[in-house]
Every structure is written in C-alpha cells, then in structure tokens.
Amino acid sequence: MKKILEIYYPIIIAFICMMYSIILGLNGNTAEAQYSAHWPGTILLFAIAIRQRRNDNNSKEKKDA
C-alpha cells in the first residue's frame, strides 16, 4: 500500500482538488470553483517536473559510478 501511495499520490491529491472544485461549483460558488479548478493541473505538472529531475539525477549518478 505504501508503494502505491508513493507512486500515485499526485493523482490522488489532484482528484481530491477536482472534487473540491466540482462541489464548490454545484453549491453556487462559481468564482471559487474556477480558482480551484486550476489546482489539479498544477499539481500534476509539478509532479511530472519533480519526477523528471529525480530521474535525471539518478541516471547521472549511475553514469558517474
């Protein structure tokens, strides 16, 4: 279970943010819903960038060894 959370935590967090935005929109808080609608994409983009940097560093260390 811990391994799954380590891999998929950005997707889980982004899904929770998306649901939060949908609930805000359904409750009539459209401005807040539009503001929070950008969070899932931002979270996923940062996760991709962090993983790319991590993979670049790991491959560089393997080449140096």
Which structural class fits the helix and strand makeup? Answer: mainly alpha
Q: Main beta sheet: strand number and arrangement?
A: none
Note the total helix count: 3
- Rounded to the nearest angstrom, the radius of gyration is 17 Å
Succession of helices and strands: HHH
Compute the separation of the termini in Å: 32 Å
Helix coverage percent: over 70%
- Which regions contain 5 or more consecutive residues with pLDDT less than 50? none
Total number of domains: 1
Q: What is shown here, in short?
A:
This protein is mainly alpha-helical and 65 residues long.
Brief descriptors of the model:
single chain, 65 residues, mainly alpha
Describe this structure in words.
- This protein has 65 residues and is an all-alpha fold.
- It has one domain.
- The protein has helices at 2-26, 30-36, 39-64.
- The mean pLDDT is 90.
Please outline the helices and strands.
Blueprint: H1 2-26, H2 30-36, H3 39-64
Helix pairs in contact: 1-2, 1-3
